[in-house]
């Protein structure tokens, strides 16, 4: 038997026997509770000699916590969610908690499966980002354990809820193109089942209406927030030979897909078509040309959600900072040439 397998087979009773103390004394030492100094020294020496590592399950039974937080997002592989996850991890690791991440992939079935996994693992709190979990189910979760919701608005829940002004951000993006002289502006939507996509489409419509501009149905292209959908939508639109001078994509990933489609069709950004995205992902500053976009502070949103979860777990009242969605000017937009 190897030293590693021996360490795994040891129990707290073995430690107590080697140290000549009771099981309860060993438990108190492991969990940082006060015992006589000479007993603590003896127990810690045995723990070192035997290379004993108490299981997480055993510690959780003593502490009443698992030091884990369930985090449900729509797509872990998404560049936006990767930034948000980075923020959650950076906060939780400083609190001694470990995130348990699950993706729903925009599926209500997978959302419920993820929640069951979290509850089966006795997580200490849950962070839900976006998604479609019904309000009664969220309310049920909030009764059982600390719950933080991000990216959902209009909920009548007594839980910390973090939302950003997606409609206002999209209005700002579209207004930027209008101020540059553009009047024929295409919008590539996200999934219309998602609140963010609906808000951004509304913001586009708001800006066009306020400027007295028509929104033609053919200017609104379907997408799903992924590069491929925008690439295909943009290719199909260009092939219709309809006039347009600018494109507002509902996120940076789709803006990059649209950019490639325009390139394939011989259209230059921004000389022939101005292009603006949304999110300000790290890669957007390094695209060709660097992408003008709306900065949505994904990492800071993740940090705020994690802080709120920790506050709830420690009996504090969470307070969210105010997040500004601001225009980031780069080289993919320019004034319309008359």
From TrEMBL:
Which protein is depicted? LacI family transcriptional regulator
Transmembrane regions listed in the UniProt entry: none
Tell me where in this chain the HTH cro/C1-type domain is found. 7-41
Keyword Cell membrane applies: no
Q: Name one Pfam family in it.
A: Peripla_BP_3
Listed A to Z, the keywords are: DNA-binding, Repressor, Transcription, Transcription regulation
Q: Which residues form the HTH lacI-type domain?
A: 10-63
User: Which SUPFAM superfamilies does the entry mention?
Assistant: lambda repressor-like DNA-binding domains, Periplasmic binding protein-like I
* PANTHER family listed in its UniProt record: HTH-TYPE TRANSCRIPTIONAL REPRESSOR PURR-RELATED (PTHR30146:SF148), LACI-RELATED TRANSCRIPTIONAL REPRESSOR (PTHR30146)
